[in-house]
Specification:
This protein is α/β, with parallel strands linked by helices. The chain contains five helices and seven strands, in the order E-E-H-E-E-H-E-H-E-H-E-H. The chain has one domain: 3-Layer(aba) Sandwich (Rossmann fold). The longest helix is centred in the C-terminal third of the chain and has 18 residues.
Length: 202
Amino acid sequence: MKIKTAQFVISNTDYKICPTPKMPEYAFIGRSNVGKSSLINALANNKNLAKTSTKPGKTQLINHFLINKKWYLVDLPGYGFAKTSKEKRARFHDMISEYLLNRSNLMCLFVLIDSRHNAQAIDQEFIQWLSENEIPFVLVFTKGDKLGKTVLAKNVEEYKSEMLKQWAELPRIFITSAEKKRGLDDILTYIESLNPIFREIT
């Protein structure tokens, strides 16, 4: 699949005023500074679609983009930004969890993981919560261009091993680089494979 059009639709803090759920939807989330906005812009081939910043915590709203006039890409606020106030973190938590638990057309959540780091407790806890609430998700390792092939493969394998301590099987995994355009076609192909399923269940 090629993204031909990517149109901003709405930003909000309440899933109840998101666009009418008549098309499949794919959301992206990750810890602050994981490279989420850069990956979204690379997928859409539009460097100005999602706001990027050198400072973590730029995304603070649920942002909907209409892709090819057929499905929604959703940019969710990052989690785990320590410099955000406790009150704001709680607000983000409620906003994100309400969206994930109630958005009926959400086909898959793409959970972004920085490939340069070891498994983080906050990621593991979030992934466990997704599983307990039966929210479909995949893992996307970002910034793959920042490491050599050997180190990248080692880091990903160590992450898998850590997950398998608690999981019987692993979710689908993508390894990406927004800068080098690595893994983007794989993600888009996966989304394309899920779109017909939405038509079957609606």
